Structure formats: structure tokens, C-alpha cells
């Protein structure tokens, strides 16, 4: 019994690490330019489908699919920034929300139209089998996804706090005009932020594609998960997103195990609304 | 008086429409345009005038639809009896979502509305009392006229027209009341409005509650016309999308914007469904997504705002006179 519970918690932590990874992208963009990407979950969905296409059509393994999805989505992020975000950022709130929401619909239903509404899944043996660690059974695919996601999220934190690039991005987030006077181009820094944010979703999508259900509407749920994670962790905070992501992963898998799989999403949504009522500034935010 | 001329001409045309276009398809199309115009106009109160983008408005639509069908299924009453119940539920739900979120930045509100819509869809799908995945049905054979179950679309057409006129009347009254002035001030600059003493959060909340009640009436009408409601048709996110896109395309925050949007998009969707069949469903929403994206990028004011601007440009000589005349007592 207790072994099963530990197994469920470990599974939740591993999935939560992936949540943290793609939520870091959302929090980065939100914290830096005060733009919320309502298509963020659909970016993850795109990453899953890129991985699916690579695995099934080209027979490539995760070693090919994961980097490819990351690169493609990062490029896509730059395109979206220059084609859409740069202009709607200056517009009214209505335009901001409608713009990224329209993008979400466009992506979701293009994939729906092309691949159909059916659930797709990849062969379970793509990433070898199940490991047995001290009596706790973990699928290798989940372990790989969780560990990679954790490392990359940590790397992202280091990138933002310990490198010149990170400092430049922070400068743009603080004060665009001042940054410009220091010779930093806000435009390129914001494009870099979008590349990182979208790259993170591509990576996360390709990682979970090996064990998650793949369906065009998965982006809606994942988008809400990302939003919950960011609002719990506080905007612009990658460590906050990490803690919140892990927490949500554990809560989700515990409620799935204890109450029933169909109530998983219900618990996450209720949690989100509860937080909005009682602690809208997030777990670590100042009031 | 000249300002009332165009709306009156439009009203006359709408009254005459079923007399000119008499096939069942055309009359059903007309009724649907009016129905979506009601829903989109209701969305416009909070989304357009208050500038708070609700992406989960289908919750209120579903409240109305389920209340109407529930009144029949569980109490053998006329679906009409469900309307007040639906309004009460909707207004309460709006208060619960709006009170915490409308104090925060608009993103929170939008995301919370999505979460509530999905949450209610999941809950209703798992509740047998509300028909679970199958949904609830209305009367198959009307017992009397109060069941509002007609074979022809014509009675629905005039009923929807009357409700639309009432909805637009309420909206017009709101914009010219103190609340409307507050909303305009808040939309321009919330900080400035607050500093001048406009109760920003409360006014937005009231607009949201008003919008919720109106949307629930649209939902009830929808369920009566189609004779059933299920989680997909009553609580699916795509219904929210339709309200939002019709208002935004026509002109969010303009009285007749949603009607213009509905008059363009509903025929487009019906015709594309007829041409493409089931395969078109995905494609329709690809096009919807593209339209929303393009409006946001190039023309956030919608079609009516564009027309108004072109109109003002076309007659630059007359403009000062007209503006002066308007200001005269």
C-alpha cells in the first residue's frame, strides 16, 4: 500500500517536472513583457505531434525527436513574436488576449483537421520498459522525461540569473528605454525570450509524447496547468514555477489515484479557482 | 432623431425578412443569426464595454439551457419556467468568479473563465441528474403553447427578434447610465478612473453579472429551439468562442457590433457545413481562429469601427458640422 503511494508520488513529481519546464516558458514571457500566451498549451501539443511524426514516420527515436521538436518550436516562437506578439503587445488588452487565443484555436484545429480527433499514442517500448528501484516501479519514459525536464528547468534558471544574456533580458524586463540606452535591443531580447519559451514547450511536448495521450485538444488542459503553475509560483519566477509544477504534479496524481482518474482535472481546476479566491498573489508572492 | 433612423430601418428589414425569404432553411438561418446575436450581445456587455475578455461565457449559456430543459425533465413544467432559475444561477456563478478575479489583471479573469467552463463541463458530464454525457431533452410533442416547441422556425424567429431588441435596449440603457460612464472611464484608464472615485472592480462585476444573466436567456432559447442540451452543445468551449468572435468581428464595445458579426459568421458556418458536411467542423474553427487572430493584429475595433473610420474620412467637410450639431442642446 505505502509502496504504491510512494510510486504515485514519484510519478507525480516526474510529471510535475515536465509541467514546471513548459510553465517556465509562460512565466518568462509573462514576467518579461506582461503578455500571456493563451496558446502556450497548444505549443506543447505541437511539440507532441512533432515527436509523434518523427517517431512514427521517420522511425527516429527520442534522440532525434526531442531536439528536433525543441528547435522547430523555438523557431516557431520567434516567428510568432515578430508576426503577431510585437504588434498586439502595444494594443489594448482585448487584442492581446484575442490574438493569442485565436492562435490557440488556429493551431488546435489545424492539427485536428490534419490528424483527426482520435487519441494517438506511441509504442510503449520506445523508451525501454519499466525500472525497479527499491521496489518502486517507474516507467523509463517517465523517468527520462522527469529528469531531463528538471535539469533543463534548472539550466534555464542559471541562464537567466548567471549569464550576460540573462542579465540583458532582465534589463529589458525592468525598463525597456533604459536597456536601450545601454545598447541592448529590446526586440531581440524579447524574441530570444519567445524562442526559449516556445523551445521549452517543444522539449516538454516531445518528452511526454512517449507516455501521454496525444490529442489535438490536450493543449487546453496543459495551458490551464501552465497558468495554474505560474499563478502559484509567481510571475517571472522559474524557481517558483518549479516548486508549483512539482506540487501540481503530485496533487494531480494523488487525486487521480485516491478519487479516480476522471476527477484529476476537476481537482486541478478547483485548486486554481480556490487560489484565486484566497491567495491570488501566488504561493511565494508578496501581497 | 437621425441617430434612431438606421436602427429603425434595420428593425423593419428584420421584421420583413421571413416574409421575403420563406424556405425553412432561410428562416432557420435567420433565427440562428438572431439567437447568436443575442448571445454575442450579452458577451459584449462584459467583453466589449467592460473590456474583460470572458472565454468561458458558455457556462451561463449552459445554465440557461440546462435550467430550461431541467424544468421540463424533472418537474414536467414549461421550459420557460427554467429561465428565471437559469438567470439566478448564472448571476451567482458570475459573482463567484468575478469577485476575486476582476480585481486582478485581465489575464486572470480570462483564464479563470476558461477554468470554470471546463470545470462545469466535466462536472455535468459526470452528473446523472443533469443527463451526464447524453444530456437533457425537451418536450417531443408540445403539450401547449407554453412548451415553445414548434416545427417551423418562424415563431422562434420573431421570439428571438423580440429578445434581441430587449437585450440591445438594456445594453443601450446601460451605456447611457452612470454605470456606462464608469465603464468607459475604466476602459480608458483604470488607474485614472479609480483615482477619480469610480468603483472599478464593482462596476466591472456588475457588468459581468448583467452579461451572465442575458447569456443564460440565450442558452434557454437555444435549448428550446433545438429541443435538447448536452455537455458539448451547452457547455463546449466552442460556444464561448462563437460569442467572442462574433462580437469581436462586428465590433466589440459597439451596440450593433455583435449583430453584424453574427449576420456574417452564422450564414458562413451554415453554408460551409452544408457544403463540407462533417469534415468541415475542424476547418470552420481553423478559419475562426485565423479571423480572431487577424482582427486582433490588424483591426481590434472590428468591422463597424473600420466602417465608422472610413465614413468619417470620406466626408471630412461635414464632420465638424455634424459634431457641432450633436453638441448643441
Q: Helix/strand-derived class of chain B?
A: mainly alpha
Biggest chain pair interface: A-B, 43 and 43 residues
Which architecture of chain A per CATH? Orthogonal Bundle
Query: Looking at the structure, what is the overall shape of chain A?
Result: globular
Helix/strand/pairing category of chain A: mainly alpha
- Measured by DSSP, the beta-strand proportion of chain A falls in under 5%
Whole-number total of structural domains of chain B: 1
Radius of gyration of chain B: 20 Å
Topology:
The complex is a heterodimer of chains A (about 290) and B (about 325).
Chain A lengths: L1 H32 L6 H18 L4 H27 L4 H23 L14 E4 L2 E4 H23 L1 H11 L1 H6 L4 H23 L9 H16 L4 H21 L5 H15 L9
Antiparallel strand pairs in A: 1-2
Helix pairs in contact in A: 1-5, 1-8, 1-9, 1-10, 2-3, 2-4, 2-8, 2-9, 3-8, 5-6, 5-8, 6-8, 9-10, 9-11, 10-11
Chain B lengths: L1 H19 L3 H26 L8 H18 L3 H23 L4 H20 L10 E2 L16 H22 L2 H11 L1 H6 L4 H27 L1 E2 L1 H5 L1 H14 L6 H20 L3 H19 L3 H13 L3 H10 L2
Antiparallel strand pairs in B: 1-2
Helix pairs in contact in B: 2-6, 2-9, 2-11, 2-12, 3-4, 3-9, 4-9, 7-9, 11-12, 11-13, 11-14
Outline of this structure?
The complex is a heterodimer of chains A (287) and B (329). By secondary structure, chain A is mainly alpha-helical.
